[in-house]
Automatic annotation (TrEMBL), chain B:
Region Disordered, annotated ranges: 566-595
Organism name: Thermococcus profundus
SUPFAM superfamilies: Periplasmic binding protein-like II (SSF53850)
Domain Solute-binding protein family: residue ranges: 77-456
GO molecular function, one term: peptide transmembrane transporter activity
PANTHER family: ABC-TYPE DIPEPTIDE_OLIGOPEPTIDE TRANSPORT SYSTEM, PERIPLASMIC COMPONENT, PERIPLASMIC BINDING COMPONENT OF ABC TRANSPORTER
Official protein name in the record: ABC transporter substrate-binding protein
InterPro entries xref list: CGP_CTERM (IPR027552), SBP_5 (IPR039424), SBP_5_dom (IPR000914)
Compositional bias of kind Low complexity: 566-593
Superkingdom classification of source: Archaea
Any GO BP: peptide transport
Entries under NCBIfam families matching the protein: CGP_CTERM
Length: 324, 619
């Protein structure tokens, strides 16, 4: 119960901040938009005042804030200024599949592969000395930088993969094999850039945990009993998994930042990319909508992990139920 | 666990290997009937509403909705399009006769009633692009099916010239049923009268398909491309690599390195030699005339002497543009007709740092503390900032050069690169010292519009935004009067005289310093389409930006021809698949490396600044 209250409070404050931040940016979104359209002088002035009114930007802030909550509770995120007159909810809906296609495989696969490689490194000194520098290199690379490096070598130098967009300009989205191939072709580099950077972090975490667990008392006890190495590792692996699950939850929050820069580098039309455009054009409603999505993602991810934890680790359940 | 993992990895690897082989051959637009165009689309295409031209996708006006006239800047001529003719039948009445047999894409006839409706919808809805006409238009009268009369309360002859080639005529039978016409996105099967229909859109492009039932086929012939794919490209360097690979047929980007790639890849530009491009507008250095000492015309004149536009054109724009002369009117017929060359001789300036220093000395701005920079006459230090938006690389270079040149005569100027929105805010509020801008100095059917932007009379005080030009907030009652007179005067000779007086004021008072004539960027690939307009074949002004389709883009579509023979069989699969390269044997053939070799370093630089280049300046 306490947990749920915390979630609600977090949501309230996060959304309030989300509302406030774009409004304290300098500048005026409508005028920025109209500036792109060179037309007769005094037409711009006329349109500007019209649209300030129709977006409700001339009202006092508290009134804008109230109407924002009211609309939000009705599921209405407003109309984007930059993509006028498309509703923000629709923009997000059309961008979301690209995020899912990119993020879910990269998080899940990097977690699986990272843990596996980390465990390998943890139990073998030889593999360890070879893999660790690679892991450190990967995890220390900023997503943005790593994406550019990949784009340069595989996209520009070798010309194996395209470096922008989600599919070719000349092909129609369909369920045909050709389209799927084209899509995967464009998807590979952004995916790799996220996958590899995350992989390093998982592997290091796993490797350290395995070493710690293998040195732990219960492992020594098992060893003394003459258990096979395999059995010890199995137990160690299980114990080492727990912090990694927590890590996964945290990572789900952090990955948003990674996806943002990756999508910007590859012009990949997900939410990160849309958000970037919103910020550059001071599109209050679009920025709010995107952040709202991110806030919800993080909260939901944490919530799910909270529940999962209870299932995985009996001790947590014990602490919740107060030891009855 | 391990098995699952292995299977997953295998699947990913398998999929990637397959896709990296680069063979894409399914539902694609036929390459030899498709025209790939870029340079005027900077966000997802999702507004085809002609009432909001400031937000509509390029081509909405022109391809889909048509105007009464089109304007040809190469010959300074308004040419009939939907209208057959148009003239002033009295001092306050303009009569238009429509062509016979016009029809909408749904087969219904286009009549005078539609024209009337198009104008009146702007009276009822304040946010329509041309609502403001109703300040001086009193009535639109339908005489018969093909004749419309515009009756003005106060005819603005010059302004009207702009609207007759910019107001898109919309079908009454559709728009009268739309409740909130201004926020209507008009994306589902929009009906216009134009040569193309909307086919499909997604995050990266808008696709148009030819309207084979277009009324104009009998008059103008049939446009050659069956499909037009208008693509979003965020970086000029990506545009370059697409162009040399033949993935982009018609490019309206500023492309660095055009002189180098032109010979290797047979890229078509307007001129074969420098400056390569036609002029599109004037980039001015605006000086804040509300600030000491920039409020002094003599001081501004000194700055004008100290700046060398030739060096700026050469270094910042690789000589792809022309340096501006002191009046700043772009070298196009509409402006040349009114240009007062004699006045320019008399009052103009040339790059002459000695002369600049002389003037500054005589005004009392001297370097009294010996730091190499001049101070105010009372010894106060003097320092200026000059701004352009971050990421606009050629302009960034421009203000670096300007600050060097001004530094050479002892004026301390620091180049600053705020984000676009901050730049725009400072510019419109008048909170800057010096700034480069060109937005409204474009080619129009009337020079009045150009002057009305540079010298816009109704600016607000510093700190309050004003959106219509004259960023330096230069004030002069004579200018206000002259602009009003030109707009409302019918007599040609009197107008010419007024234009002359305006130019004299500009030369004497230096309200802003013209720097360069920004290019009408045009690069075309001859790989799939030929007969592009050039200096030797000047049939159209080849720009596809918003607002420019009716200034030449439409004519380009009517004139280009497909290069069928060479590409029909193999070209389709490889070129359409973007950067997969033109490989037939291995994924990395020489042909793709050729592109990579030249634009590799360029593209990586491009990628590094992608977030900052998300949108390039217009023109």
């Amino acid at each position: 119960m306490r947990k749920i209250t915390i979630y609600i409070l977090t949501f309230f404050f996060a959304v309030t901040i989300d509302w406030a931040i774009p409004r304290f940016m300098p500048g005026d979104p409508v005028s920025v938009l109209l500036s792109r359209f060179a037309t007769l002088p005094n037409v711009a002035e006329h349109l500007h005042s019209y649209f300030i009114q129709s977006f409700g930007l001339d009202k006092p802030l508290w009134e804008q804030y109230l109407s924002f909550w009211k609309a939000l509770l009705h599921g209405d995120l407003g109309v984007s200024i930059y993509y006028y007159p498309k509703p923000v909810a629709e923009i997000i809906k059309s961008a979301l599949p690209y995020d899912i296609a990119l993020l879910v495989p990269s998080i899940v696969l990097s977690w699986i592969v990272g843990n596996w490689l980390g465990a390998l490194a943890g139990k073998s000194k030889k593999i360890d000395s070879f893999l660790m520098p690679v892991f450190y290199f990967l995890t220390a690379s900023p997503y943005f930088w790593f994406a550019i490096v990949l784009a340069y070598f595989f996209g520009v130098k070798l010309d194996w993969f395209p470096v922008s967009g989600a599919y070719s300009y000349g092909i129609m989205p369909s369920l045909s094999w050709a389209f799927i191939k084209d899509f995967l072709h464009h998807w590979t580099l952004p995916f790799l850039s996220l996958f590899l950077v995350q992989l390093g972090g998982w592997a290091i975490g796993m490797r350290n945990m395995i070493i710690y667990e293998v040195e732990a008392d219960y492992a020594r006890y098992l060893e003394a009993l003459g258990s096979s190495e395999k059995l010890i590792l199995k137990h160690a692996f299980r114990n080492a998994m727990l912090p990694q699950v927590t890590g996964l939850a945290l990572q789900l929050g952090l990955i948003v930042a990674g996806a943002l820069t990756t999508e910007v580098v590859f012009s990949y039309p997900g939410i990160g990319y849309v958000l970037m455009q919103g910020i550059l054009n001071q599109d209050y409603f679009l920025i709010q909508g995107c952040f709202l999505m991110i806030i919800l993602n993080v909260l939901v991810a944490n919530f799910v992990i909270d529940i999962l934890y209870v299932v995985i680790d009996p001790r947590v359940k014990y602490s919740y139920t107060g030891g009855e | 666990m391990k098995k699952l993992l292995g299977a997953l990895i295998a699947l990913v690897v398998f999929a990637n290997v397959l896709s990296s082989a680069g063979y894409v051959s399914a539902k694609e637009l036929p390459r030899d009937e498709t025209l790939y165009v870029g340079g005027g689309l900077w966000s997802q295409p999702n507004n085809f509403n002609p009432l909001t031209p400031w937000a509509a996708v390029t081509g909405t006006i022109g391809l889909l909705y048509e105007t009464l006239f089109i304007y040809d800047p190469l010959n300074d001529k308004l040419e009939p399009w939907l209208a057959e003719s148009g003239q002033w039948i009295s001092d306050n009445t303009y009569e238009i006769k429509l062509r016979p047999n016009l029809k909408w894409q749904d087969g219904k006839p286009l009549t005078a009633e539609d024209v009337k409706f198009t104008f009146e919808i702007a009276k009822e809805n304040g946010g329509v692009g041309w609502s403001q006409i109703w300040g001086w238009l009193s009535q639109v009268k339908v005489v018969d099916d093909r004749t419309v009369q515009f009756i003005f309360s106060k005819p603005h002859y010059e302004e009207w010239k702009y609207w007759i080639y910019n107001v898109p005529i919309i079908p009454e039978h559709i728009w009268k049923n739309i409740k909130d016409p201004i926020s209507y996105p008009n994306t589902d099967n929009p009906v216009g009268s134009g040569m193309y229909k909307l086919y499909k859109t997604d995050q990266m492009r808008a696709i148009w398909v030819r309207n084979d039932d277009w009324w104009g086929i009998k008059v103008f012939g049939k446009p050659a491309p069956k499909y037009i794919v208008y693509v979003i490209v965020y970086s000029n360097n990506v545009a370059l690599s697409m162009l040399v690979k033949g993935d982009l047929d018609w490019s309206n980007f500023f492309i660095p390195g055009v002189p180098d790639v032109k010979s290797t890849y047979k890229i078509v530009t307007w001129y074969d030699k420098k400056p390569y491009h036609l002029s599109a507008n004037t980039a001015f250095l605006f000086l804040n005339t509300q600030k000491e000492p920039l409020n002094n015309p003599e001081f501004r004149r000194a700055l004008a002497y100290a700046i060398d536009p030739k060096e700026i054109a050469a270094r910042a724009e690789q000589n792809q543009v022309l340096p501006a002369d002191p009046i700043g009117l772009p070298p196009l017929p509409v402006f040349e007709k009114i240009k007062a060359k004699d006045l320019e001789e008399k009052y103009g300036w040339k790059y002459d740092p000695e002369k600049a220093m002389q003037i500054l000395d005589s005004l009392g701005f001297k370097d009294t503390n010996g730091d190499g920079y001049r101070e105010f006459p009372d010894g106060k230090p003097m320092k200026f900032e000059i701004i352009v938006p971050y990421g606009w690389t050629d302009w960034m270079e421009m203000i670096r050069i300007i600050s060097d040149q001004l530094g050479a005569v002892g004026i301390r100027v620091e180049p600053k690169f705020p984000d676009y929105s901050k730049y725009w805010e400072d510019l419109t509020k008048g909170e800057f010292d010096m700034a480069i801008n060109n937005f409204g100095s474009q080619v129009y059917a009337t020079p009045w519009q150009w002057f009305n932007w540079v010298l816009y009379p109704n600016v607000t005080p510093v700190g309050k935004p004003s959106y219509s030009g004259n960023w330096g907030r230069y004030k002069n009652d004579n200018v206000t009067k002259l602009l009003e007179l030109i707009n409302t005067e019918k007599d040609k000779n009197k107008k010419l005289q007024y234009y002359k007086e305006l130019q004299e004021i500009m030369l004497k008072d230096v309200p802003a310093i013209p720097i360069i004539y920004n290019g009408a960027w045009f690069e075309a690939s001859p790989a799939h389409w030929t007969n592009w307009p050039t200096e030797k074949n000047p049939y159209a002004y080849p720009i596809s930006w918003n607002n420019y389709w009716q200034m030449g883009g439409l004519k380009v579509l009517l004139h280009i021809k497909p290069v069928k023979s060479a590409t029909s069989s193999t070209g389709t699969t490889s070129t359409a698949s973007g950067t997969t390269g033109t490989s037939k044997t291995t994924p990395t053939t020489s042909s793709s490396k050729k592109g990579g070799g030249i634009c590799g370093p360029a593209a990586i630089v491009g990628l590094a600044v992608v977030p900052l280049l998300l949108r390039r300046k217009k023109g």
